[in-house]
Amino acid sequence: MERRSVLGAGAVLGAALVVRPAAAWAAEGPVAVSDADLAAGRALFAAGAYDRLDGLLRLLLDAAGHSTRQGPAGAARAAWVWVLASQLAVKQGRNAAAGAYAGLAGVAARRSGEALVLAAAARAAATPLRRTGRTDEALQLLHQARAQLTAVSRPTAAELEATGMAELTAAYTAAQAHLPALAEDFAAQAKQTARRLARLPHTAARPPQLTAGQCLLYRVGIHRHLGDVDTALAHTRRLDPAQLPTAERRARAATDTARALMDAGDAAGAFAQLRLVELAAPAEARRPSVRALTARIAEHRPGLAGLAAYVHRTGAKTLPQ
């Protein structure tokens, strides 16, 4: 029987996300996740279109359980859905949900037996784990994923990219745990992996994720968490956001720069970066953690031109009187 996709049954990616009524969806019966569904979800995440991704994920999450019963390939597609759901939950500040989705992704990834999927699930799990003080578990998962990816003698471009992204996530995780030597070691490994990847032809449909710019972006957060704001800011000056692969990453660059500037006492500079966050991906400016940063700026410099309107647009806390 030809496998139907969620997009074919209930959603299309275009100017808007169109979903069939619940009754019509139920009448369709079990629908599996397709590669097109995953590509659509990834595109929405990369664009920072989180509301639309939320709508698509309602269908994909229903289909993921059915996909796990379709052998290793179906389990892999289900794992990717749960990775996306975990990433979105992180953006929404829902740590418990992010952890639950990452756990489901890990189970499905192990069922798939694919190293790339296992690495993605490990990276998804790392964020809620480190946010709940379980850094050792996060680092162990990332180490295992990296070990499996590097066990082959001639890794593919996709395997190199997954390796480098796991290394960057491990470096950031170690920095949040105030383990400078380990953070530096992983960051240096990621830089070397990125150089190896750059020598290979890029054949994937989406832009490369592991680049020199991506490594620089992670360095900003790594050094800020280690308390070295001067080095973090030095990396921001070398970072060209235009070279980052997606709107989500460009917004993250501006967010991390704003955080470093605020740590250095430059509220005006931090607010200028938050304007860039909104320009790159408006939904990023409405994330709970970014709204908290906006409120912090408002507390320190309530009179900054344009700040009151920005607070109103993004839903941050009311400016102090």
Strands, helices and their partners?
Elements: H1 6-10, H2 22-28, H3 35-46, H4 50-67, H5 71-91, H6 95-112, H7 115-131, H8 135-149, H9 157-176, H10 180-198, H11 212-225, H12 229-238, H13 247-263, H14 267-280, H15 282-285, H16 288-300, H17 307-314
Helix pairs in contact: 3-4, 3-5, 4-5, 5-6, 5-7, 6-7, 7-8, 7-9, 8-9, 9-10, 9-11, 10-11, 11-12, 11-13, 12-13, 13-14, 14-16, 16-17
Briefly characterize the structure.
The chain is an all-alpha fold and 321 residues long.
Give the key terms.
globular, 321 residues, mainly alpha, 17 helices
Architecture overview:
The chain has 321 residues and is an all-alpha fold. It has a domain at 1-125. It is built from 17 helices and no strands. It has helices spanning 6-10, 22-28, 35-46, 50-67, 71-91, 95-112, 115-131, 135-149, 157-176, 180-198, 212-225, 229-238, 247-263, 267-280, 282-285, 288-300, 307-314. Helix 5 (71-91) runs parallel beside helix 7 (115-131) and helix 10 runs antiparallel to helix 11 (212-225). It is globular. The N and C termini lie far apart (65 Å). Residues 1-27 have low confidence and may be disordered.
Instruction: Output mean pLDDT.
Output: 89
- How many strand segments? 0
Radius of gyration, rounded? 20 Å
Measured distance between first and last alpha carbons: 65 Å
Strand content: under 5%
